[in-house]
Amino acid sequence: MRVIGLEEHISFPEVAELQKEIAERLAFPNLTDPTRQATVLGPLERAGPEVDRIPTMDKYGMDVQVLSISGSAVQNDLDTARAVANAKLGNDKVYALTKQYPDRFRGLGILAMQDPAAAVDELQRCVEELGFIGVMLHGPTNFHYYDEPQFEPVWALLEQYHVPMYIHAASPEADQIRMYEGYSELLGNTWNWNVFAATHALRIIFSGLFDRHPDAMLMLGHMAEGLPYFLGRLDEGYDCRNTKALGRMAHPPSYYIRRNILMTTSGGWSPAAMHCAIEAIGAEHIFFATDYPNYPVETSFRQMEDCNLTQEQLDLIYHGNAERLFGI
What we know:
The chain is of the alpha/beta class and 328 residues long. The protein has a single domain (4-326), classed as TIM Barrel, CATH 3.20.20. It has helices at 16-26, 34-41, 49-60, 80-100, 116-128, 152-161, 192-206, 209-212, 221-224, 231-240, 253-260, 271-281, 297-305, 311-326; strands spanning 4-10, 64-69, 105-107, 135-138, 165-168, 218-220, 261-264, 286-287. The strands form two sheets. The chain has a five-stranded parallel β-sheet with strand order 4-5-6-7-8. α6 links the parallel β4 (135-138) and β5. α4 (80-100) runs parallel beside α5. The longest helix is centred in the first third of the chain and has 21 residues, at 80-100. The protein is globular. The two termini are 15 Å apart.
């Protein structure tokens, strides 16, 4: 069976020091086990095509990876001009790999949303010149969220091209982690990242953006950051808080989650989560992803095997949806 992965990361050394600088400024603790990072996953900069990536893809039968720049060196840079330059540099790095290995790689661009006009120009270049299938943004940009009005032109162009904005999990501002005090192990991928990303997505939904741009697509990793499992709760809140009277959104949240949200399987999850997601939003909205090299590829495939899905569901998730929507 053909296999396409939608969240497969690369990095580039030009922003390594900037990444450290930003992490120190945000003061968000990094609790990643260094042994696991070194022995199980391998550093991003070592995951080049000839070293790790293509041999790993071949070992597990992965035909295509959709590559994206990892980290928040663009999204959380206070220097707008530098962010714009690094977004272009990062996209050129991804493009070089897609050009060198056109049968194995496609690209998701990164945008410096600090300058929405520059982001529109770079999105146009990503799609029309580089052949990318969308963009991946690592959380909000300096804690400006993408429901804010200055980002409307970016959404309009995404809708025009019919490509998604993929919002990757990221860390919130340091003052938002107070509730985790004494339990820092709950930060990051244990719990905090998905809560932050899901809340960002809900801001976009509740802003009415998908009424203004009904064909826009928002892609979320890690089983849609839990949103498929809260449809009833979200709709209950929509009703009991009389949200419709605010005039921002015409339908309950579940309507938009089923219509405008695309989900990938990156990271760790259980078979029950997959079956719930299929029932909630449909297999036609779910895409395979491994989160390479941040999650073991072998485990990504084993999770799928443990679900006992039908052949039709497997065909859609592993390759059919990506072929249909993005022409891969």
